[in-house]
Write a structure and sequence with these properties.
The complex is a heterotrimer of chains A (about 290), B (about 300) and C (about 270). Chain B is mainly α. Chain B is built from twelve helices and two strands, in the order ααββαααααααααα. In chain B, about 50% of the residues are buried. The model of chain B has no long low-confidence stretch (mean pLDDT about 85). Chain C is about 40% helix and about 25% strand. In chain C, the strands form two sheets. Chain C has a six-stranded mixed β-sheet with strand order 6-7-8-3-9-10, sandwiched between helices. A four-stranded antiparallel β-sheet of chain C has the order 2-1-4-5, covered by helices on one side. The longest helix of chain C is centred in the C-terminal third of the chain and has 14 residues. The chains are: A mainly alpha (about 290), B mainly alpha (about 300), C alpha/beta (about 270). The interface between A and B is large, with 82 and 82 residues.
Chain lengths: ~290, ~300, ~270
């Protein structure tokens, strides 16, 4: 016999122990991330909760922490969400539809596909520089909401395109064939059947993209969103600020109170994100039911 | 319902217009890329008429905004490297461990909880992580390392590591789950322990996806802006200590934008020069990652 | 049946020979240069059921799909020869495939109802084609013709996906009939169904014959023998024989045909 039972037994025990420790280690690491998230959220809540009140939501920023508020930043962020959605969602879905339904398998389609994949990996600050040069300077849109929205739309476009394509791909070919065989054009087929069926998946991708956009600071800084805005924007051409910028501004100050104000701002930002995701889940469930 | 003629009664203008619009939208992405490249290269070339490339790529002092000015990018590069390497050291092993737990050990119920939590972690805006670094991580580090500065590279690296961990974990988890169960069962049937099956069979089998996830995480770390700007400071230097304030490429770009830099001057052009560097580094890593995915994608059948 | 009666029947048939709705003239279909259908010539007569039979891969589905230009969606496909429909070549210059498909409908192998209500499944295509009559009537008429009305008349606004396989396929038939096509193409419509549903649909086809022209591809020889008037036997892309169903199954002219219908291969 080639194996000595005692040796093999001892070794087997060692291997089992190693395996056990490894499994425990992996579990520990994973649950630590959860723990970390909890710590992060707790820390922010503790720091910021005390400053969270109606006055905070209703005031403009100020040199004095007790009087400072987040009104202009919140309104700016809401404006941005709306404008970015209006610009990037139709363009993104259209691009995805073109690539999936109309483009065929030629060179051009492949080039665009690779291009979109690369664009999704470009650091957000490069989009900021692009926005600065093209929208602020070249098109002379200055440091307005429009510049910000256009810049951020370019940023989220690859994400929307990729997510929409995935959703569109899940619609079975048999549905398309059925529609086409009834004498429908490609667009009629797409509009009546492919889009409604892929809508839940597309919405999920859109919300994901918009959530990312809301938290981005660097591009907005680059195009010149101001950090001290004591007014509300009245039109898309107005100057503005946004939640992450205001938070950054407060964090950068040395005083403890401003750090706590930043925490309060973060809570507001996280709530906005939460609401957006909840909306996505709601929309998803509603449109999925209709298809049943 | 229809007469017998099957010829076109006229061009379908609606279809043509719609197709054109869709094509236009798809083209926006191409235009974006072209615009980025043209813009960056044009301004960078202008920059290199004022500053020699040798000074830029090999100089060791970065003082572009004050006199006497110096345009050596190495300190910025070094800052970026410190953050990236530090983040990678944290995120890669821990992210892979999490991925292994998720795909090999966690029950379906646990997965149902953990995956959304990881996605939550990934969705938290970077300013929040910056705040976290400044108000929690640095003070915590100070209790162990009293000499640490308020703005330091270590804090930034830790926080960026936490940021990219979910990315690595999720993508690696996808790669590991794609490995067919039959491979695992074959290994178990030969009397291997779970540790052996995981490390000798599953991970090697899903290696291309796992490596791609590492590269993607690293690319994100390189491009990360706000967390390092807040946590690590604005002092470009080549010191080997991670306990000091540094400046990354991205943090420098933010610094310049917050000030009022007159357009057209050399200082303005430094923005583009470093941005071009950043762009090509991340592009290179992303392209390599995609190449690994497509070239080495394992075929399991 | 005595030989005198059967020859009388043939003479009667010849007298009442209906016009050809589709006239295939040396039709070949190639995928990237490789022929899947080779020089097929035959006629599809009005208000008759024509079956296309043959072993797997013989090109029968390809031939069927070329009759309503569904092959257009395959990369690298090319057609040679002519398919005349109302004296127009289906593949002629200036022909709009969308118009072709409005007049020549199709039912697929696997039922593929839209994930919509039963009503909307039927109403969608006529709606986008500008149907101006009463949609309710059209839906009821189509479902009745497909022998499905009684079963679903109280739940028209429920999802079509809640129906059984056989019901879904009848829904797909109703959906195609709602366009009032001149020809109905059926690609192995019963192969995904159980025997009872199959029997229902075969009965249905018998009744539809009086109003529609039907071309059915089937790998089930008994089905072809049961319901069709004419049968085309294909093998490896060639049309080996075409004729009266009776004649094909009892007195085939070609040896190959005889071998197939007696089950010696396929």
């Amino acid at each position: 016999m080639a194996f000595s039972t005692e040796q093999a037994q001892a070794q087997l025990q060692k291997r089992h122990r190693k395996s056990l420790y490894f499994a425990r280690f992996c579990a520990f690491i994973t649950w630590s991330s959860v723990f970390l998230l909890a710590v992060l959220l707790m820390q922010i809540s503790i720091d910021g909760f005390g400053w969270l009140d109606w006055q905070f939501l209703d005031s403009f920023p100020s040199r004095f922490p007790e009087r400072a508020g987040i009104k202009s930043a919140l309104v700016g962020t809401l404006w941005l969400i709306l404008m970015i959605a209006v610009i990037s969602v139709p363009v993104g879905i259209s691009a995805a539809l073109y690539l999936e339904e109309f483009a065929g398998k030629g060179r051009l389609a492949k080039v665009i596909e690779v291009n979109v994949a690369n664009l999704s990996g470009v650091p957000s600050i490069v989009y900021g520089i692009l926005g600065l040069a093209i929208f602020v300077r070249f098109f002379a849109l200055e440091r307005s909401l429009v510049s910000g929205a256009l810049t951020m739309s370019l940023l989220v476009l690859p994400t929307i395109i990729i997510a929409s394509r995935e959703a569109i791909k899940t619609v079975p070919m048999s549905i398309r064939y059925a529609a086409l065989s009834l004498g429908a054009t490609r667009w009629q087929t797409t509009w009546s059947h492919v889009l409604p069926a892929s809508f839940p998946g597309i919405m999920t991708g859109v919300i994901l993209a918009l959530s990312r956009a809301i938290g981005e600071t660097a591009p907005l800084i680059m195009i010149g969103a101001l950090t001290f805005v004591a007014f509300l924007p009245q039109s898309p051409m107005d100057e503005f600020t946004a939640l992450p910028i205001q938070i950054y501004n407060w964090v950068s100050r040395p005083q403890q109170e401003f750090h706590q104000l930043a925490a309060a701002g973060i809570i507001v930002l996280l709530i906005v994100l939460l609401l957006m995701n909840a909306t996505a889940i709601y929309i998803r469930s509603k449109t999925e039911q209709r298809l049943k | 319902m229809f007469n017998s003629s099957i010829h076109k009664s006229g061009k379908r203008w609606g279809e043509i217009l719609i197709k054109f619009w869709l094509w236009l939208c798809a083209g926006v992405s191409l235009v974006t890329t072209v615009a980025i490249i043209v813009l960056l290269l044009a301004e960078t070339l202008k920059f290199f008429t004022q500053v020699s490339p040798i000074e830029f790529f090999f100089g060791t002092r970065w003082v572009p905004l004050m006199q006497p000015s110096s345009f050596g990018v190495l300190p910025l590069l070094w800052g970026t490297i410190q953050i990236t390497v530090g983040a990678a050291i944290i995120a890669i092993p821990l992210g892979l461990a999490s991925a292994i737990y998720l795909s090999e050990y966690a029950s379906d119920k646990m997965r149902a909880w953990l995956k959304p939590i990881l996605e939550l972690l990934a969705g938290i805006p970077t300013v929040v992580y910056g705040y976290f670094a400044l108000t929690f991580v640095t003070p915590a580090l100070k209790t162990f390392i009293p000499d640490i500065q308020v703005f330091n590279a270590l804090s930034g690296a830790i926080v960026v590591g936490i940021m990219i961990l979910p990315t690595i974990a999720t993508l690696s988890d996808n790669a590991l789950r794609a490995v067919p169960v039959s491979l695992r069962q074959a290994a178990y049937a030969l009397g291997a322990t779970s540790y052996e099956v995981t490390t000798r069979v599953v991970v090697p089998a899903g290696l291309s996806g796992v490596i791609a996830s590492f590269l993607l995480g690293i690319s994100r770390a390189i491009g990360e802006t706000m967390a390092v700007t807040i946590a690590a400071g604005a002092t470009p230097n080549l010191s080997l200590s991670m306990l000091e304030s540094i400046q990354t490429i991205t943090a420098y770009i933010v610094q310049v934008s917050l000030g009022d830099t007159p357009s057209g001057g050399v200082a303005y052009q430094t923005l583009f020069a470093v941005a071009t560097l950043l762009f090509f580094i991340t592009l290179l890593i992303n392209v390599i990652s995609q190449w690994i995915l497509s070239r080495f994608r394992e075929v399991y059948d | 049946m005595s030989s005198q009666e059967s020859s009388e029947q043939s003479r009667d048939k010849a007298k009442n020979q209906p016009p050809a709705v589709l006239d295939l003239q040396a039709v070949s279909v190639l995928y990237s240069g490789k022929p899947a259908v080779k020089k097929v010539s035959c006629q599809i007569l009005r208000n008759r059921i024509t079956a296309i039979i043959g072993p797997s891969g013989c090109g029968k589905s390809t031939l069927l799909r070329s009759l309503n230009r569904m092959n257009d969606f395959v990369d690298g496909v090319s057609i040679e020869g002519k398919i005349l429909f109302a004296d127009q070549d289906l593949y002629g210059k200036g022909v709009d495939p969308v118009e072709v498909r409005r007049r020549i409908g199709m039912v697929f192998q696997k039922p593929n109802p839209f994930p919509k209500s039963i009503y909307n499944n039927i109403a969608w295509a006529p709606g986008i084609n500008g149907y101006s009559g009463s949609m309710d009537e059209l839906v009821e008429r189509s479902l009745s013709q497909a022998a499905l009305w009684e079963e679903v008349k109280d739940r028209l606004h429920e999802s079509a996906l809640n129906l059984s396989g056989g019901q879904q396929q009848r829904l797909c038939i109703a959906r195609a009939l709602a366009m009032e096509p001149q020809v109905l193409l059926m690609d192995e419509p019963c192969s995904a169904l159980d025997p009872i549903s199959t029997a229902h649909i075969e009965d249905l086809l018998f009744e539809l014959k009086s109003r529609y022209t039907i071309v059915i591809v089937t790998h089930n020889m008994q089905q072809a023998a049961r319901i069709s008037d004419f049968t085309a036997f294909m093998e490896m892309g060639d049309l080996i024989e075409f004729g009266d169903t009776d004649q094909i199954f009892t007195r085939p002219l070609k040896k190959r045909t005889e071998e197939y219908v007696t089950g010696r291969f396929g």
